[in-house]
Amino acid sequence: MASVAVYNMEGKEVGTIELNDAVFGVKVNEHLVHMAVVQHLANKRQGTQKAKTRGEVSGGGRKPWKQKGTGHARQGSTRSPQWTGGGMVFAPVPRDYSFKINKKEKRAALKSALTSKVQDSNLIVVDELKFNEIKTKNFVAVMNNLKVEKGLVVIEGNDANVVLSARNLPAIDTIQADEINVYDIMKAKKVVLTKNAVAKIEEVYA
After folding, report:
1. Burial level of 33, CB count in 10 A (0-12/13-18/19+)?
2. Helix (H, G, I), strand (E, B) or coil at 109
3. CA 63-64-67 angle, 5° bins
4. Is the predicted pLDDT of residue 112 greater than 90, yes or no?
């Protein structure tokens, strides 16, 4: 099992924790990680873009001029794509971009993402994150103590004081342990987990 240091909110090392190799020590599968990230982004797409084809624009009911003898190129409709105000070729239409990957593949991708953070020493464990009030300045102080400029903070449950204190920080995201995903983990430069969050992740994915 991998052993990592545990820090307090002042950034001081207060112990160590053994991480379960079934979650934090697997063989990294880059292909599954890539597939999980692509799926996450595809599923977020609205797919509401729309443009009109030549069959949907108005006008163009008659031939603009006779076929021969005018000196112009032959034309059948003023709504053809080459005309101003004409329809669009291969116009985008509303569609669903989402696709599915197997549950086992998604779990393996998540474990690979967490393992890569451990291997790169970009995973930080804190004993707890507790704030008596909603104060962004206090949250920034903790991140500075942990030397985290851009990262993902994973907490056990919905702690409003933590979430709302971090809400105005563009480089910091917060998420609950049961909602973690590959995209957010890989996007973050550092991943900060509370000890309770580590226990919950190991309980679900080990």
Report:
1. buried
2. helix
3. 70
4. yes
Tokens in use for 169?
Answer: 């920080």
Quote the pTM value. 0.82
Per the CB < 8 A criterion, the answer to whether 29 and 118 are in contact is no
Report the first-to-last Cα separation within the chain, whole angstroms: 13
The string of pLDDT tens digits covering residues 114-171 is 999 999 999 999 999 999 999 999 999 999 999 999 999 999 988 899 999 999 999 9
Q: Which tokens hold the place of 5?
A: 């240091």
Q: How distant, in Å, are the alpha carbons of 33, 77, 110, 161, 182 from that of 106?
A: 8, 51, 6, 31, 8
Contact 19, 3 (CB under 8 A): yes
The two tokens of residue 150 are 């851009």
What's the gap between Cα 12 and its chain centre? 31
